[in-house]
Amino acid sequence: MRKAFAGSVLLGLLVLALAWLGLMNGSTAVPATSVWAAFFPNTTPDALIAVVREVRLPQVITAILAGSGLAVGGLLMQAVFRNPLAGPGVLGITGGASLGVALVVLARPIWVFINLSPSLLATVAGLFGALAVLVLIVLADRRLGDAATLLIVGLMVGYLCSAFTSLLQAASEARAVKGFVLWGFGSFAGTTLADLPWLFFPVLVATVVALTLGKALNALMLGEQEASALGVATARVRLLAIAVTGVLAGTITAWCGPIAFLGLAVPHVARALFRTADHRVLLPMVVLLGAALALACDLLVRAFPPLSGVPLNVVTSLLGVPVVLWVLLQGRKWGSSR
Predict the structure, then answer these.
(1) What CATH number did the domain enclosing 81 receive?
(2) Under 8 Å between Cβ of 276 and 282
């Protein structure tokens, strides 16, 4: 526990450092004094201070929320399904969010009677698409009661959503398809200060609930029969973990687009760093590590010249693919403490 506490302190400091660098760096460099002044409401208005308050601060907070939320969702899915390659998108929730956005962006004339801005309408549609898939998965879980079969159902739902999305792309005009493709690249820059509560509170509540599941997830890793023998209500824990992941993945995808690999890779990085399979330790660690990696990816895209203008998902994939390959090569060692 002492090692975990020291690790959490170091990760917390890393998150703060990366957040500060994210506020300072971008297309226009902002000095540390202007960044500091931006946190005081009575500061004399200044162009650089406005950049920090209105553009970079929402982007940094969004990266923290998205990275930590996806990492928690990935850890929950890997524990529930006892599968090292499970992630937030494994139940088709990300696909449902993408289909919701596609219905708005690619079939926009149908929704002109709704008095919302196009960006907000797309976000709401993405959230409803994710929640619709989540309800479907919860109903399937009640009927099946089996994690392995439920995993297959989730994958099929994801493929079905992807097929409908592809049909919409094929039938839409080039301009609309371009907008949808840009959304699919993923970005932390799509939120404003006014939007942040709609992202912050669902992610916060879902993460707090997830942090209470550490002991039950440890039991689930032994198998459902063993967990039941230890007094764990496996069906309830599985349902709660699925619901939490659905809220996290759906909300984050709706606001940021489908962010690749963070949810899949971060839990494995945490296991490797802390040499443990104890979810009571891993859950808070992936919150901090996910936030740190999301901030690092965003900073690379905005402030590292060779990657300037490169889609965020390209950077997350470059970091995530080696981790997935490493997991495959490790085989059954992924869930063991070392």
Answers:
(1) 1.10.3470.10
(2) yes
List per-residue pLDDT tens for the chain, 338 residues long: 677 788 889 999 999 999 999 999 988 888 888 888 888 877 766 888 888 989 999 999 999 999 999 999 999 989 988 888 788 887 888 899 899 888 888 876 666 666 666 777 878 888 888 888 888 888 887 787 777 788 888 889 989 999 999 999 988 888 888 888 888 899 998 888 888 998 999 999 999 999 999 999 999 888 888 888 888 888 899 889 988 998 899 899 988 999 988 998 899 889 888 888 899 999 999 999 999 999 999 999 888 877 777 889 889 988 888 877 876 676 555 445 44
Structural domain harbouring 208: 2-335
Tokens of 99: 């289909």
Cβ(74)–Cβ(334) under 8 Å? no
The total of structural domains in the chain comes to: 1
Nearest to 154 by CA among 166, 137, 170, 138: 137
pTM for the model: 0.89
Q: Which amino acid is at 246?
A: G
